[in-house]
Design goal:
- With about 100 residues, the chain is mostly helical.
- The protein has helices spanning about 5-25, 30-50, 55-65, 70-90.
- The longest helix is centred in the C-terminal third of the chain and has 24 residues, at about 70-90.
- It is elongated.
Length: about 100
């Protein structure tokens, strides 16, 4: 059995899911979703052509990109934490239209 591989996949999902949930609340979410989808489509087509015997640079680039998965997930987690912290701080300190901190009633 390949329990080690399954455990690593679960770990990667556990690491990737929180940043994705935080990023889903940002205005950049539609662009990230479409861009990520296009990237996956291109990689899948490259791998499909590679399996059919057509050597291509897309498959090689996708294979190299796979080795960067963990650093990408860590970077996404850092971005998600920064975005979440900014949202929390924005909610805690109301700012008036003049740019000064207002006093809650």
């Amino acid at each position: 059995m390949n329990l080690g591989i399954e455990a690593i996949q679960l770990l990667l999902v556990a690491l990737a899911l929180p940043p994705l949930l935080v990023l889903a609340t940002t205005p950049a979410q539609p662009a990230l979703r479409v861009g990520g989808s296009l990237l996956v489509i291109v990689a899948a087509l490259g791998w499909a052509f590679d399996r059919l015997g057509f050597a291509n640079p897309i498959a090689r680039a996708a294979d190299r990109g796979g080795t960067m998965l963990v650093p990408i997930i860590i970077a996404a987690a850092v971005v998600a934490v920064v975005v979440l912290a900014a949202q929390v701080l924005r909610r805690q300190s109301p700012v008036t239209s003049t740019g000064t901190v207002g006093v809650a009633d």
